[in-house]
Amino acid sequence: RLTGAGGPSPLVIHEDQTAETIKAPGPPLGVMEDVPYQEQTAELQPGDSLLLFSDGAFEIHNAEEELLGIDGLAGILKSLGYPQTPLNMGGLAEELLKFSNDIRLQDDIAIIEMRFLGQ
Predict the structure, then answer these.
(1) Cα separation of 58 and 21, whole Å?
(2) Is 19 exposed, middle or buried (0-12, 13-18, 19+ CB in 10 A)?
(3) What confidence tens digit (pLDDT) does each residue in 99-113 have?
(4) What's the whole-model pTM score?
(5) pLDDT on residue 16
(6) What are 4-49's pLDDT values in tens digits?
(7) 50 strand-pairing partners
(8) How far is it, in rounded angstroms, from Cα 118 to Cα 5?
(9) Quick check: bond before 10 cis, omega within 30?
(10) What is the CATH number of the domain that holds 36?
């Protein structure tokens, strides 16, 4: 179970490399008092990963002003062999730079990976 608090929707990457987002709307923590947050659920299978990340991981534009987006981020992760291959932040940053066609990324990136081992 999880709930959103103003951040990007979490991404589930299944062992077969398919991806889905978990829509978890909600205002940022601390902005308003007594806000009822809605819980969402996701059923994970052994080998599935749940990724939480900052907007800097997908709000990246290329030279044509096209947005990478969450689907684009999932595609890059798949091209890097994830989840069969461990998450490699250096490789991910390199691919994000290639997409942006810039000399450096314009925003910070934070990614938290939780892998379900089936126990």
Answers:
(1) 13
(2) buried
(3) 998 888 888 899 999
(4) 0.85
(5) 92
(6) 887 888 999 999 999 999 988 888 888 888 888 888 888 899 999 9
(7) 12, 114
(8) 27
(9) no
(10) 3.60.40.10
Residue 24's domain comprises 2-115
Mean pLDDT of 69-94: 93
3-state SS of 8-35? CCCEEECCCCCEEECCCCCCCCCCCCCC
Residue type for position 91: G
Q: What is the biggest distance separating any 2 CA atoms in the chain, rounded to whole angstroms?
A: 45
In whole angstroms, give the CA distance from residue 44 to residue 112. Answer: 16
Domain count across the chain = 1
Type of residue numbered 66 = E
Amino acid at 16: D
